[in-house]
Amino acid sequence: MIVVMSPQASREQVESASELLRSRGLIPVSSTVAGVTVLITEGTDGPELATVLESAPGVDRVVTVSGSQRLTSRVFRPEDTEVALGSAGGAVFGGTGFAVIAGPCAVESPAQMNAVVDSVVASGAVMLRGGAFKPRTSPYSFQGLGLAGLTLLAEQRKRTGLPVVTEVVTPEDVKCVAEESDMLQIGARNMQNFELLREAGASGRPVLLKRGMSATIEEWLLAAEYVLHMGNSDVVLCERGIRSFERGTRFTLDLSAVAEAKRLTHLPVIVDPSHSTGKPHLVTPMSLAAASCGADGLIVDVHTDASNAMCDGAQALDSEQFSTLMGRLKPVVEAVGRTLSPALTHSLAQV
Amino acid sequence: MIVVMSPQASREQVESASELLRSRGLIPVSSTVAGVTVLITEGTDGPELATVLESAPGVDRVVTVSGSQRLTSRVFRPEDTEVALGSAGGAVFGGTGFAVIAGPCAVESPAQMNAVVDSVVASGAVMLRGGAFKPRTSPYSFQGLGLAGLTLLAEQRKRTGLPVVTEVVTPEDVKCVAEESDMLQIGARNMQNFELLREAGASGRPVLLKRGMSATIEEWLLAAEYVLHMGNSDVVLCERGIRSFERGTRFTLDLSAVAEAKRLTHLPVIVDPSHSTGKPHLVTPMSLAAASCGADGLIVDVHTDASNAMCDGAQALDSEQFSTLMGRLKPVVEAVGRTLSPALTHSLAQV
Amino acid sequence: MIVVMSPQASREQVESASELLRSRGLIPVSSTVAGVTVLITEGTDGPELATVLESAPGVDRVVTVSGSQRLTSRVFRPEDTEVALGSAGGAVFGGTGFAVIAGPCAVESPAQMNAVVDSVVASGAVMLRGGAFKPRTSPYSFQGLGLAGLTLLAEQRKRTGLPVVTEVVTPEDVKCVAEESDMLQIGARNMQNFELLREAGASGRPVLLKRGMSATIEEWLLAAEYVLHMGNSDVVLCERGIRSFERGTRFTLDLSAVAEAKRLTHLPVIVDPSHSTGKPHLVTPMSLAAASCGADGLIVDVHTDASNAMCDGAQALDSEQFSTLMGRLKPVVEAVGRTLSPALTHSLAQV
Amino acid sequence: MIVVMSPQASREQVESASELLRSRGLIPVSSTVAGVTVLITEGTDGPELATVLESAPGVDRVVTVSGSQRLTSRVFRPEDTEVALGSAGGAVFGGTGFAVIAGPCAVESPAQMNAVVDSVVASGAVMLRGGAFKPRTSPYSFQGLGLAGLTLLAEQRKRTGLPVVTEVVTPEDVKCVAEESDMLQIGARNMQNFELLREAGASGRPVLLKRGMSATIEEWLLAAEYVLHMGNSDVVLCERGIRSFERGTRFTLDLSAVAEAKRLTHLPVIVDPSHSTGKPHLVTPMSLAAASCGADGLIVDVHTDASNAMCDGAQALDSEQFSTLMGRLKPVVEAVGRTLSPALTHSLAQV
């Protein structure tokens, strides 16, 4: 149940509504959505409580959401949320456009970043990706360049004017990653790292929330709820494959979950065709499929020297493959009534 | 390893090549592909054996396939196989067209069949489906009309001139189902019912082979191999969702498997968006996604009175939803450079 | 809902009770359990119907089972079912004993059978296994010796006096397999081969029903229901591992399902530690675990020359390993208050 | 590859060995194991490198581990690691004993803690559990008492003299949780929260590492490797169920993984039968099975007022059920040649 207070509600009125909820055994969590205070409870009590609350002073309306999502639900907010990044002309997720993020899995060097970024911008990417902090299964694998990687990424952001997204892996790093990038990526392994979600929510920065590799759609939306109830509604969900018995692909890309999530939530949903399939030859067909089933964008691994990539090179597209993907994507995006977000057309300076 | 004999090879030459294989510990299985005898072995021995065989009398060429698929592999046959059904103007799977099969989950009555068939034909289906023998989890659920259902389906085939596909669940029924329909469906639960696969192979009828709900891509292709090595190359594969932990959809539709199967095999692959998702609102987005990622067609549940359907009504589209799907499908199919197979335009008589 | 007729109920009374069910929209399936007619329906209607039925002439009692199992449910039959095989001194599943079936995966030759059988009998196996018809993923793999294998197995049955179980893969073979063996095994791939289940049910022979590799517990019990409603209550369930993402073991042995199945059904449940784990070093720990959690027995692959086995040799125990297993099993079986079924002590003639 | 330096190796010798590894393209990570410096690399290069290294000054021996585990591998350390907690008479995991941890899922109040702790100590638990920081799927669910909960748990530790384990969910909290408890639990959702693992490793406190719900055995051991390579070898692994398609149990308890992990690693492995099954009636059979297949202990949810539990009450045993479990556990533990770790026999003061 969500009790939406009116913009003019006094502190006393908020407290009085909270007290009413507590008297029914419900424990309200207070949040601020679009400048307005809302009180959120896990359970719903009966319909009679909603009626009582709606006539309480300072209460604007009461929303009863079935299931366990709350602020992420279309019942609370029917219209699509648009998450805009960067300054004017930047990337927008969740509107009529279809936006493609591209870049290397890991930031490695200035030369690598220049090469990859030039290439993906030329082909129409509207946002850049690149990992500085890499969560790796083995402690002996390359763990990313850390702060140095963050700086290299920020240089590309400045050079191209494009927004950048990068992963943050621990609450302590949120502040510095938020300063150097436009969007915080929460990786699949951290989807239920709740302290990290809360900290990302508090940062005010847009969040790219990857689905955990064994998370249900409901758990994914509840992870987003952790960000939203901190007052941050700029969340983009990202499907990146789930674990199944199938060994022919790295993970099983669950596009039904994209369509289902779009039905349940107002938040934008994008797809990662690279990490999910783990095979370059599957990236293009899965990208087209994502565009057709309602996704709002893609995040694609691109490397201009994949065989020497320090992380996950085997799945990255090269420049030419990415260019081909973008060319094939456009008619499909338009066939479902959307527009491929346009590439920047200004010239790029070398750092 | 596949030893392809020349069309003029004598019986003695075939036996001599077989003997050569046996002398290396390989046990050849003989099959006839496009009128030519081939000898197939599980293992491959060394490259030297291939050289010896290729110069043996009556041997045309030797194909060494890595992995365990043989006749289904693109290594054996690089070009796409087209499976054509019905007379001229019927459905073709695997060419440049994209063909849609539609109809009710189960055949129930003449009135139901007339209504559903009229509706799907009007919207552009080029082939009909309808189950007469229904494999059901519980022995107390409706098991299909059996032979009576087969007759009702055959009446629609005659009335419309469209090819029909229906499921066969046991080897004994193959002959009679082959007589009354154009294509034998092997359901997901029977994907590894090897006697049924052999019998369907021997029937010479085209086969629609659904992927088992926990079958790997490799196991699916090996099930097709059971049909092909009986001398029957007319197999259409059908992805219909796999089992995973996700409970928000009935099964997890694995579209990566469609793209991967298309890469590995020359056989056509279609998608069942109805049984996989179990939710009508997911059928259209998943159909569009299937068309984009390389599938050759769809098989869709349609019911004009879904709330009274005797089997799986909850997931069926109604006439209007199916018509909308077909309308949205056309531009997507064309955006990937294919053609939506045209609906018949002749008038339909009532049975 | 199950309507149990009294032993003296007339044909008219049965028909009258059936008619009453049909008038409420329930479609009764008639079966004979322990010589008594029962009418089984999928749904239950309201409690009032049960009251009406219980006072109808010829009706003994009405059992309302929640969930979808019926004759397999402990609600219908609270006490454990014991399935006894062979003549006096044979194997019994489901009582206070714990019985071990052992033998090779596939029957290969008289010498192999003599060696393996002598070895497992010496270590305490009370029943023999051996596959004559082998369902194999690839059509080019060894498919079993077929009828010749059946004969070899029957010779061991005669030689040892022990009951034997062997797999049947198609309805047509049920009659001949039932003649040559004491128990019909339905393999995991055929768990939902409903025609095969019905035919096995009609044969009157005890059935060993393996759980499908992606079957839920409920689907497994409903597959057993197909056998029971044909009037055959001698079903032993067998857990043999399910498919999961884990690749360190061949399948994931689901022992919770054993304990849960024992709670839900009166049928005996045994465990296959060989096919599930695929690793000999896991067979003993998983056998002990099975004995501790309530299983009624084991079915174990043993081969005296595993490296030359024609099928699944890699997972088989050798004689010594099997002997060690039996030695370690005894105290664990006794620690949970049961008795390891005793080995035969007569001398064995060579065939 | 692990290069074990001799205890007398100089800083220069360590650096020289590192340099040798780097010259072959291997990036060594330095760690301290039992007071000795080891250099660990992800890859292994050829056997020739090992020979060169073994004759380098200051190098004691070189261990080449196949697969990706290193310090956790039995190849590096063949004998079982014993993890001892608390002062003399506390709990030991990994020796010949079998130790049971018990307590409530969440710490709720002094009265609740007194009641549950008295009950589990009376029945033979040798260590206490209780969550103060609860990671919850929904932000609106009870999140644990936090620091107040930690204090309540510490009071029980003091009152009983028993060691306690509690979950830590974020790196920042490691220090304070390490002060108030004997062992840090890393939950399933945080198994790949690598910063948390590193921080726990650095704390020097023993770590209870739960397996992620979709983690392979290899990933689980590599997560432990993150703790070990920080110089902390006191890690106890805990299997708590994995995600599969089966919906009849909360998770699928993977006991094969316990036996397989015991073979691969020298670290102790225990089992959580409560969270894995989610059903009290499955806790006892799965506990007995765990004891039989090689587990070194259990961690069990117990609540004296489960129907009012604030978290996961539905799966907790009550006092009587726990007492019954302990009684049934003893003979099974002894049947596999181990000893149930004895309960304390001193009287307990009330806090």
Automatic annotation (TrEMBL), chains A, B, C, D:
InterPro entries: Aldolase_TIM (IPR013785), Class-I_DAHP_synthase (IPR052899), DAHP1/KDSA (IPR006218), DAHP_snth_FXD (IPR041071), DAHP_syn_2 (IPR006268). One of its GO terms (molecular function) is transferase activity. Residues 1-66 form the DAHP synthase ferredoxin-like domain. It comes from the Bacteria. SUPFAM superfamilies: Aldolase. One of its GO terms (biological process) is aromatic amino acid family biosynthetic process. Residues 95-325 form the DAHP synthetase I/KDSA domain. Pfam families: DAHP_snth_FXD, DAHP_synth_1. Keywords: Transferase. PANTHER family: PHOSPHO-2-DEHYDRO-3-DEOXYHEPTONATE ALDOLASE, PROTEIN AROA(G). This is Phospho-2-dehydro-3-deoxyheptonate aldolase. It comes from Streptomyces abyssalis.
